[in-house]
Amino acid sequence: MNTKETLPLTKRSKRIQPSLPQAQREWLLSLFSNGQIRETLNAIVALTKDYPEESLLYNISGICHRRLGQLNVAIKDFEQALKIRPNFAQAHNNLGLTHHDLGHLNTAINCYDKAHAINPDYAIAHNNLGMTRHALGQLNHAVKSYEKALAIKPDYAEAQSNLGLTHHNLDQFDAAVKCHKKALAINPDYAQAYYNLGITLTELNQPDTAVKNYEKALAIKPNYVKAKLNLSTLQLNNGFLSEGFKNYEVRWLCDDFPSRRRKFSIPRWAGEPLTGKNILIWEEQGIGDEVMFSSIIPEFEKLNCNVSIECSAKLVAILHRSFPWAKVREPGDLNCEESVIYSQFDYQIPMGSLAPMFRKTLDDFSTQQKPFIPRFKEAEQRIRNESNLHEGQLLIGLSWRSSNQSNRRSVHYLTAEDLVPLKTIKNAVFLGIQYDHCLPELERVRELGLPIRYFKNIDQKNDLASACTLIGACDLVVSASTSVFQMSGALGVPTIMFDAFKSRKKRIPWHPTVRHFPLNSNEPSLLINNIINQMPELIAWANGVTTSERQMIRANAVESGRLTKRKRSLNRRFQ
User: Fold this and answer.
1) Does 388 lie in the same domain as 348?
2) What is the per-residue pLDDT across 176-220, written as a single tens digit (0 to 9) for each?
3) What is the torsional sign of CA 311, 316, 322, 326?
4) How much is the pTM?
5) 457 to each of 466, 467, 470, how far by Cα in Å?
6) Is 386 in contact with 534 (CB distance < 8 Å)?
7) Residue with the larger pLDDT of the pair 147 and 575
8) Residue 566: how many CB atoms within 10 A of its CB?
9) Are residues 435 and 428 in contact, defined by beta-carbon separation less than 8 angstroms?
10) Partners of 477 in the beta sheet?
11) Which end of the chain is more exposed for a tag (fewer CB within 10 A), N or C?
12) In terms of domains, do 343 and 389 share one?
């Protein structure tokens, strides 16, 4: 969202603050307008010696400190300006913005209210109030604030685009598109409006048009990091891998990117020959991402190089088992530039940058990706035995959500209650492979007639080796787009992954045993009914792709005509 600090115009300042000479005021505002923040602050220090009661100086000083990220200093500046001049509406507005930055949202609202009490037609403060209401989740109130700003100032492009964002978050996508287009009619060079429009068009399943808008935003603002990252996501999910992977490198510049920005003196690997060389592959993002990206690591075994892998502590044992020819350990220091240990490597590369080195097209993924986590066969059989499976029964693992259930992410998940209709599947036993606390959910579902079994003695969040055993014991897994489906695919377990993402026409097939089913978050029953109706076909597919010897034995027996009574029952169980 676009926020805006304000300060009085030169002529108005002269009328309100006669103590500061016109020439010095214009000089100071010129420094500020040209972005010379440090020079502006130095000038203010000099001027306050002669004009200690000049509120304008403290207001500008506060804006400068806010832009430098020195928020507590900025607050003191604005408060000093208001101590001198309590009816200074701009200072109230700017103080509100700074409290918003610090997360003091209700305090920010009080500041905007004071600005409006002084000047009811203060459009910028109405816009900023809308921004804070939006952050509080008070979306309908935010809409009213933006509309007030636009009633006062119809050509206010920022308020128009902010209104569009709020409509987007209210799932009023057509209204959002209209707002962003109005903002662009007002200001055709408004990069953020193109970016916001791209987000909404993605939600409306118009990826081609969304791409064009991101490209327009970048033409205006080439260093627009979020626009480039969103563009890369669209490209990667629509088959344009070369451009998508190239743009994906911008992820390290995003403020909210969840990985550490590690520093190395050794060069980044860019595809140079590795024979006899030492290379470090290091972790990024979450557990699921690490598992997904690790599916490329098998390529290094044939490159005659010495490979070291740094991954999350939870994954060390699993990746060590998967890649016995490599050294696997927990992540090292953030700053590795002066490290003797890291100086022994010839190259380093983050996991998320491996794919474009070996996979140029979607066909490359389709033909070359393979499950890579070895199966824990004996342990899997123990789980099946403890699950008390009767002859001919199918074990289906269920994971319906992530532990992160924010409003924007929860649309991609199911509730446990949504799973209840699965009870109509004959001869199926269900196993909970949800990795966080879910016992209350399981109890509700069991009361509704779906008896999901759950191993309370296994910490599926932290003991990933045991979690893999549970997943591997399943004949079929149904999972939300979380680390569960990534591990299931890496194990070679037939997996149905669901999410509600739109504008993903040609998904990268990272795992050959994973199929995607779309989720309509407004009608989750459609997904469940789709799974139930397709179950006979899904079983046939599962028998063909699984890495489990249990399934392969069944398939071989069918091919040779040696069907025992038990094996025939497997074919009948979903009739």
Assistant:
1) no
2) 999 999 999 999 999 999 999 999 999 999 999 999 999 999 999
3) positive
4) 0.84
5) 10, 11, 12
6) no
7) 147
8) 11
9) no
10) 397, 495
11) C
12) no
Please report, rounded to a whole number, the percentage of residues in the chain having pLDDT higher than 90: 79
Q: What is the 3-state secondary structure (H, E, C) of 324-361?
A: CCCEEECCCCCECCCCHHHHCCCEEEEHHHCHHHHCCC
Between CA 11 and CA 513 the distance in angstroms is: 70
Give domain status of residue 264, yes or no.
Answer: no
In a domain, 348, yes or no: yes
Tokens of 552: 């392969």
- Give the pLDDT confidence of 433-458 residue by residue, as tens digits: 999 889 999 999 999 999 999 999 99
Count of CB atoms situated within 10 Å of the CB of 8: 21
Q: What is the pLDDT of residues 358-369, one digit of tens each?
A: 999 999 999 999
**Letter for the amino acid at 24?**
Q
Domain count, the chain: 3
On whether both 218 and 354 belong to a single domain, the answer is no
Band (pLDDT 50/70/90 cuts) for residue 37 is: confident
Same domain for 334 and 190:
no
Q: What's the distance, Cα to Cα, between the start and end of the chain in Å?
A: 54
Mean pLDDT of 319-332: 97
Whether residue 404 sits in one domain with residue 348: no
d(CA 272, CA 152): 60
Assess whether 391 and 342 both reside in one domain: no
Residue (of 187, 176, 113) closest to 145 by Cα position: 113
* Distance between CA atoms of residues 529 and 551, nearest Å: 25
What's the rounded Cα separation, in Å, for the pair 69 and 397? 48
Q: Is the residue at 114 inside a domain?
A: yes
Strands 514-518 vs 452-453: parallel, antiparallel or unpaired: unpaired
Look at the block and give the residue holding tokens 């400068």: 64
| Sheet with 327-329, edge to edge strand ranges | 327-329, 306-310, 278-282, 347-350
At 277, is the secondary structure helix, strand, or coil? coil
110 to each of 148, 152, 159, 451, 474, how far by Cα in Å? Answer: 17, 21, 20, 52, 56
Query: Which element (helix H / strand E) includes 528?
Result: helix 525-533
Closest among 255, 485, 487, 249 to 350, alpha carbons compared: 249
List CB contacts of 365: < 8 A, sequence separation 6 or more: 359, 508, 509, 510
Q: Would you call 282 helix, strand, or coil by DSSP?
A: strand
- Give the CATH number of the domain where residue 286 resides: 3.40.50
The H or E element spanning position 124 is: helix 123-135
Count Cα neighbours of 257 within 13 Å in the Cβ-side half-sphere. 19
Highest mean pLDDT: which of 404-418, 509-523, 541-555? 509-523
User: 48-62, 150-164, 297-311, 523-537: which range is least confident on average?
Assistant: 48-62
Confidence of residue 18 (pLDDT cuts 50, 70, 90): very low
Residue 366 domain flag? no
Q: What CATH number is attached to the domain comprising 430? A: 3.40.50.2000
Place of tokens 């009213």: 144
Site of tokens 């509704």? 448
Residues 150 and 56 in one domain: yes
Residues of the domain holding 326: 278-358
* 354/404 same-domain check: no
Residue 487 near residue 468, CB atoms below 8 Å: yes
Does 7 have pLDDT greater than 60?
Answer: no
